[in-house]
From TrEMBL:
NCBIfam families: ATP_synt_b, PRK05759.1-3. Its main location: membrane. It is found in: Cell membrane. The gene is atpF. The lineage of its organism: Bacteria, Bacillati, Actinomycetota, Actinomycetes, Actinomycetales. GO terms for cellular component: plasma membrane; proton-transporting ATP synthase complex. The keyword Transport applies. This is ATP synthase subunit b. PANTHER family: ATP SYNTHASE SUBUNIT B, ATP SYNTHASE SUBUNIT B', CHLOROPLASTIC.
Amino acid sequence: MNTVVFAAEVPVEPDGLSIVLPPLYEIFWSAIIFLILWLVLGWALPKIYRVLDQRQEQIETGLQAADTAKEEAALAQRERREIVRAANEEAREIRERADQDAKRIVREARVEATAEAQRITENATRQIEADRKSAELTLRRDVGELATELAEKIIGEQLKDRELSTRVIDRFMDELEADLKTTTAGVTK
């Protein structure tokens, strides 16, 4: 049996301090890596912090802008509601005024129509009365002339006195009207 012992396999007994301290080459490489990391982070961290600060400012600015936009939107909404309310109020007032104007116009038109109808009625009444009187005078004259002609034919003489003829005609017409009224009063009873 041959036993070959390799040096790597030979356990080395650690001394008291070597248990706590790592080997020198590990310390060297750890220091180099630490130095590189320190340089990289020393150079990169301010930039990273600056970017983070800018980002935070942008976020805060955005949040402030959003809050401002919310407030402005709420204000605009309130203003819109106020404008709509005012417009509705104004429209209601306009409708009320229009209704009042319409009622006033109708009232005025009725008054004017009543006045016009009254004027027309009065004119018509006056015209009828004038026509009636004119017809009565014409009828009285015509009947008087006929009665005079008839009386002249019956008597055989011509009535030359105009005044006498007028009195005779008036008396005849008065008697005729009295007879007519008596007849009419007896018929209506």
